[in-house]
Every structure is written in structure tokens, then in C-alpha cells.
Amino acid sequence: MSHDSYMKSKNKRKIVFAKRGAKDLEEATAWLASQNIEEIECMVPDLAGVARGKIMPSKKFLNTPYMNLPLAVFYQTITGDYPDLEGVVGTVQSDTDIFLKPDFRTLAAVPWAHDPTAQVIHDAFHPDGRPVEESPRQVLRRVLGFYEAKGWKPVIAPELEFYLVEKNTDPDYPLKPPIGRSGRPETGRQGYSISAVNEFDALFEDMYEYSESQGLEIDTLIHESGVAQMEINLLHGDPLELADQVLMFKRTIKETSLEHDIYATFMAKPMANEPGSAMHIHQSIVDAETGQNLFSNPETGEPTPAFFHFIAGQQKYMPAITSLLAPYVNSYRRLAKGSGAPVNTQWGYDNRTAGLRVPPSNPANRRLENRIPSSDANPYLAIAAVLASGYLGMIEKLTPADPVDKDASTLPQGDLPYSLVQAIIKLERAQPIIDIMGPQFVTAYSRVKLHEYETFMQTISPWEREFLLLNV
Prior knowledge:
The protein is of the alpha+beta class. Helix content is 35%, strand content 18%. The chain is built from 15 helices and 14 strands. Its cofactor is Mg(2+). InterPro entries: Gln_synt_N_sf, Gln_synth/guanido_kin_cat_dom, Gln_synth_cat_dom, Gln_synth_gly_rich_site.
């Protein structure tokens, strides 16, 4: 960050916005008027967690708060292509309109916009009123419906790791750490260093301001173990609400970083010799009426059978949901032996080398942390997948393996997939997961991911040119 950029940020006028969310169109209209909002970003998260949609004048939005997009928006790959849809929805049907309905609870400012602008996340429906199964928001709603039918309510808290990197306009060149306020880049790992975070003090001040103006509840910010790698923790709460916050936070830190002439990336393994970035998901289940944590006996405080069933479900179904937690070819560079990531389905008490960790807590806060998801995962799908696995464990009354108290990274990887293709095959063969997450969604997701893999295979890497060109 240049000195001029730093001083410009420090001298920037503080912006105050109303709190996020409205209960209905009437309240939203008053909110927009109070903020003098001129434009609305109407968005829906696609399979990659990318915000798709339209930008429209606020008057037009208030007159017709519904908008149309083609169904194919949920079949678009990360490269902007589309897989073969034969046998899934067909070319004609994929191009037909779906209807997007705003969830006014997500209404918030867009604080980095030049003109007064708001954003609102939408849900997708077919013309006959049926929810669109391929929509990630609907997938999470579907999974939460199974819990609701039992009188249970999941509570989650995500932890997001990301890197700040120097602008990289030529993808043939590797990424570099950015210049901080000292005028120098980081040269060594500064895990948990406050001074290393303060190198980007102006950026993070803007990030906090922008987050607060959108109602994003950031708990902590720390420097992680990688060079210019950071982690933010969001406060625990409702799964759908937190997935929305992750979507909004990713947009926020990317936009804030661009204002400071650097990039923020949630790529799982952006630099070869640095640790990957994760999205750890803490989970507990409470009684919907009483709020009692179902993982703890209310009288003794000891863990309940449901707690161990929940763990066992995630152990059993982790291989089947891995493609939802690690959705790209690059994700498996993080999930590799010796990478520092937990490449296993083991569980343990406060053991960060295990894929499943039980953090220290009192009985009211007993929870399970799933450490497998990458930061590149779609938050709606990753949260839905781990909750689906835990639910199946509770329903099937599964028994977990014994907890491990040693370095789990030395243990065999077992059934955990080594690649995206292997992970997709396991997903397609896991009927209980298909049933709970929706067959139409699983088919769509598999087609998109396999097409992305095929696109990746068309690129010849430097490694191949270095070691195969003249040696084979």
C-alpha cells in the first residue's frame, strides 16, 4: 500500500448506515428512503458462491421487487462455461426464466459503492412456485428443514482464512505478499503477530467500517501462519444467516483490498510454499423450544449420545461430502499430506491435526469443529453438507471411532478423496446424502464440477514442461 493510499484511507469520512435487514417490502421502502438509496444490487449466490443478478434503480425495484434470470445461472462453471445438460434439465429448460424473490432480512448497504447503493439476497423459484433445487440457499434450507421437523436447531460459527497478495495481472506469474505500511513485504511467517496485522491497519479499519455498516458480526481478526494470511471469525448463529454473512464478507474484503491496490483471495492454496486457507465450521444443535444444547446432559453436563452420533455421522459421510467442502482442483493442493491441513476423518479433543476437533468449552457451548472445508467452498453448501452428515449420524445412531490424542496427520488418509474427480464419484454414490441434499442439486453440482475439471486438464503446467518435455 502506498503512503498516499494509506493517508487517503486514514482521512476518509466515516460513513454511518442503518442496521441490516427489513421484515417486509413496506419496511424496506422506508429503509431505502432513509438512506437515499439510488440503486439496488439484486443478487443470488450460484454454485460457486458468486453473487449473480442484476443492478436496478431503487424505484424500479420497489415497483417490481421480483426479477427473472435463466435457470442456467445455477449451471455456470467458475470459468463461465456450461456443462452438457442432456439428461439433467435440457438446453431449452436451462434457458427458461426462474423468479427471484428478495429476502428483505438481507437488505444492507453497499458501503464501497460511489453512489448510495443497497444489496439484497434473493431466493429462486420456478414459475409454479416450487423452490429451485439447484440454488445453494435452497439446499441449505432443505437440510435445515430436516432439523426443524425434529424440533432441533443448528447453531454454527465459521472461521475464514484468506491471503492478502500483491496485484497479479498475469496469471503465469506466482503470487507475492503485498507491501505494508512499512514499505516492505512480509518475508517470514508471522502467525498471531499483531504488528503484522497492523501493517495493513488502514485496510482493516475500512474493512471493519464496511462490515459494521452491513451488520456483519466479526468476532476476531488474527494473522494466520502464512505470509500475509489472515483469519476472521464470525459470531455464532443461525446457519442461513451466517452463510449470508460469509457471502457478504467475501465481497467486502475483496472490495476493500482493491481500494488499497491489493488483492484478497480465498483460493485454497494460492502459494506453493505457504499453508492453505480453510473455512472451519463450528457446529452445535439446540432444542428449538428451550435452546438447550443437545450435545450436553442438562443435569450432569456430560456429553450426550447425540453428540457422539453427530461426530460419527461426519466421520462416515465426510468422504461423500468432500467435493462440497473442497470444490476445486486447487482445493486438493491444500488437502495433501504434509500441507498442514487435517487430511483425515479422525476426531479428538482439542486436537487440530484431526479433521474433526472438539474445542474446550463448558457444557452449554459444547460443539464440533469441522476443519476440512477450504475457504474457497460455497458457504451455503459447505454448511449444508456438514449438517447433513451430522443429522444422518443422529438419525442412524452411529458410533464414532475412538478419539485420537496424537498427531493424526501420521495416520492413513483412509477413504478421504485425493482429488476432485474421486470426491465427485463418492458424492454420486452416497444415496443418504443425495436424499437429504436433493437429487437435482447433486446431479447439477456433479456436472458442473466435472466440467471444471475437464477445463483444468486442458492446461499444461510448468511442472509438465520441466520434467516431461525432454525426459520421457
